[in-house]
Design a protein that fits this description.
Elements (H helix, E strand, L loop, with lengths): L2 H17 L10 E3 L8 E4 L1 H7 L3 H15 L3 E7 L2 E6 L1 H12 L13 E5 L11 H19 L3 E8 L4 H13 L5 H4 L3 H24 L2 H10 L6 H15 L2 H14 L3 H25 L5 E4 H4 L4 H10 L2 E3 L5 E4 L7 E5 L7 H16 L3 E7 L3 H13 L8 E6 L2 E3 L2 E2 L10 H19 L7 H21 L7 E2 L2 H4 L7 H20 L15 H23 L3 H20 L8 H24 L9
Parallel strand pairs: 5-6, 5-11, 6-7, 11-12, 13-15
Antiparallel strand pairs: 1-2, 2-4, 3-4, 8-9, 9-10, 13-14
The chain binds one RNA strand through helix 2, strand 10, helix 16, helix 17 and strand 15.
RNA sequence: GGCUCCGUAGCUUAAUGGAUAGAGCAUCUGACUACGGAUCAGAAGGUUAGAGGUUCGAGUCCUCUCGGAGUCACCA
């Protein structure tokens, strides 16, 4: 059993014995003692002061004595301002080190037999992935890894939004202006090519709209429909969607294409398949660069009709109601929400209908006890409604649904906007961070004797380490300001800082190997140094951090832990002699400690999807 | 306007209701003449947006105010 639980229980017994009061072990607060005080762990005794009817210092002293008398691992205690500081015997720490040093799985929980499904990324197929997707993907991926480490069986899925107006725009645009261009004959990555035609479509539409605004038909509509005092410019800005649906030639072509697609028109389907295929091969490359993969893909083209049977059931159960026009609704006003449409008057699905349908087929296929949706917080309301609806329908999985919402990524100049061309492309970003890493590395010249392929791989690992860490270290809920320059920083609180500590350790262990040093000699070591203790305390914390990160779906906890551990290691490395240690035992102990730190850093960063370089 | 989230050093951020709010960047000083300086040490920088309240104890919980974001479509 780990020392914190032991101490908690000892305090429970002390309180019962001294004050005749029952309390729960989990409620006893045991923290790491702050560096300025003597001790390893501190117990907060304030909660017992009142029932003891004594001064805090006296209560702390009494509990301290009782704990020290009954817990062999505690060999001293002191009291400062009502805080009880306990010193743990060295043998506990040396035993602890034994349990870590060769344990590749340290920090993981036993398998719990439960399944979790994590949905993330879920792009549209009309344009390449961008910075926003990267945050989503990194969150989804690292949560998956963390949940796995916490004992769950994780199924990683994404929904490919491969149908609808957006892809039809790219198709129409390509057909009209593409002249048979392909990724092969143009050398342009498939998702970018399709995205280019999407942008072209938007530009052509804009041109068409501007020209149309000069026509008499437009003037008449403006005269008839504008609000009092509304300028022509403001009116037409608002009117754009309506225009696109009622007057635009390009708009008509898109609708026609969409209709043909729904009717299975062979030519349209063929083009759709071709262009989506281009996009998928592009996505594959990006996913590969990011080091992520999925267990199962859901294509919207195959799921967009789902959910209608659930609507029928909902009507029968009285959860839904039908309006005169035939549309179906749910009334959520008693939960502080609105009435929400779940089926259109023409009988077709809306977004939420599909989501009801897919959640059910997922449950039927995998029986996950939890389903996590990694989706930006602009969709909070949608998920609130979705989950509430599924609950009212009595779906068996409704209680295990979780929306992992995260803040949008903004640039220092504000929100990314397609129209203003400020969207940061994922592939560009990957290339950029690798380039910066290479630049920085060549200044140092550490790896110039490596062969080029190996160098490039290292540069990718370091560059991606910087980028990923920069994004993951921020709490998911927070809107994040992405400063491109800072994202490739490699000093301070960064991925490469953590990687560097690993590289240092790696180097030490290589040398230890060459010198054939017996790490077993560490058992003769006594007199643990503060810098060593700091590392042991940090390592000791790791399993709890993994558990917390899984419970809170919060990878930033792992990132911050890794940074703190790396920082403590750098300090240790600087202050304490390892190969020049005062004894063979000290040397072996420090090497074993270093090895453990390296192992845990590697494990933790791996949970974040960050690889460790052997040299840098 | 309703609902939700956010407000911590110049900037980016951390802190299960617990001790003196902890880091990094930027700024200024210093450090191994062999375990790699992508490191370490130090200085300076804070009324945790503001006001009340609960508590032995509040950045954290409650109320109000101010500021910012998102959302409130038979779009996805």
């Amino acid at each position: 059993m780990n020392i914190i639980s032991i101490l908690q229980q000892a305090v429970v017994q002390a309180v019962e014995h001294l004050y005749n009061h029952q309390t729960e072990a989990e409620k006893v607060l045991v923290n790491a003692t702050p560096p300025d005080f003597t001790g390893d762990y501190s117990v907060v005794v304030f909660p017992f002061v009142k029932l003891a009817g004594k001064a805090p210092d006296q209560v702390a002293a009494e509990i301290g004595k009782h704990v020290q008398d009954h817990v062999p691992q505690v060999h001293a205690h002191n009291v400062v301002k009502g805080f009880l500081n306990l010193e743990i015997d060295e043998s506990y720490w040396t035993n602890f080190l034994d349990s870590v040093v060769d344990n590749q799985h340290f920090g993981e929980q036993p398998r719990n037999g439960q399944k979790v499904m994590v949905e993330f990324s879920s792009p549209n197929t009309n344009k390449p992935l961008h910075l926003g997707h990267i945050r989503n993907i990194l969150l989804g991926w690292s949560c998956s890894r963390i949940l796995d480490a916490a004992g769950f069986d994780v199924v990683k899925v994404q929904v490919i939004n491969d149908r609808g107006v957006a892809i039809c725009k790219s198709m129409v645009s390509w057909k009209k202006f593409g002249n048979g261009q392909t990724p092969e004959n143009s050398g342009i990555k498939g998702d970018h090519l399709v995205g280019d035609y999407y942008v072209l479509f938007e530009n052509k539409t804009k041109e068409e709209y501007e020209a149309w605004q000069q026509t008499n038909a437009a003037k008449i509509i403006f005269e008839e429909k504008h609000k009092d005092g509304q300028s022509e410019q403001a009116f037409f800005k608002e009117y754009k969607n309506k225009w696109f649906n009622d007057h635009s030639v390009l708009g008509a072509e898109v609708r026609e294409t969409l209709l043909k697609w729904e009717n299975g028109d062979p030519e349209v389907i063929a083009l759709w398949k071709t262009m989506n295929q281009w996009v998928y091969s592009g996505f594959d490359k990006t996913y590969n660069d990011l080091g992520v993969s999925f267990d199962k893909l859901y294509y919207e083209s195959e799921t967009y009709l789902l959910g209608k049977d659930i609507v029928d059931e909902g009507l029968q159960k009285g959860v839904f109601y039908r309006k005169d026009d035939g549309s179906v609704w749910i009334d959520l006003t008693d939960a502080g929400h609105d009435h929400k449409v779940v089926l259109r008057a023409d009988g077709t699905s809306v977004y939420i209908t599909q989501d009801m349908g897919t959640s059910r087929i997922r449950y039927e296929e995998f029986q996950p006890s939890r389903m996590v949706y990694v989706v930006a917080d602009e969709q909070n309301y949608h998920f609130t409604v979705l989950f509430e609806t599924l609950k009212r329908l009595g779906e068996p999985y409704a209680d295990g649904l979780y929306h992992l919402n995260y803040g949008l990524v903004e640039l220092p100049t504000g929100r990314m906007k397609t129209r203003e061309g400020t969207v940061v492309d994922a592939d560009d970003l990957v290339e950029e961070v690798t380039r910066i890493a290479t630049e920085q590395s060549s200044e140092r010249g550490e790896i110039e004797n490596f062969d080029p392929a190996e160098q490039q791989e290292l540069m990718r690992i370091i560059g991606m380490g910087a980028l990923k860490f920069f994004i993951i270290k921020v709490h998911p809920k927070k809107k994040m300001i992405f400063n491109p320059e800072e994202s490739v920083d490699m000093q301070g609180q960064t991925g490469p800082y953590v990687q560097y500590s690993f590289v240092r350790i790696n180097k030490l262990l290589q040398r230890a190997e060459i010198e054939n040093i017996d790490l077993g000699l560490r058992h003769g070591y006594t007199g643990i140094q503060p810098q060593e203790k700091e590392l042991l305390l940090a390592l000791h914390q790791y399993p709890a951090v993994v558990r917390e990160a899984a419970e809170a779906y919060d990878p930033s906890l792992i990132a911050n832990f890794c940074y703190a551990l790396a920082k403590a290691y750098h300090r240790f490395w600087h202050d304490v002699k390892i190969f020049q240690a005062e004894s063979q035992e000290a040397k072996a102990f420090r090497l074993a400690l270093s090895k453990s730190v390296g192992q845990v850093l590697d494990h933790g960063m791996n949970l974040l999807g960050i690889e460790m370089p052997s040299r840098m």
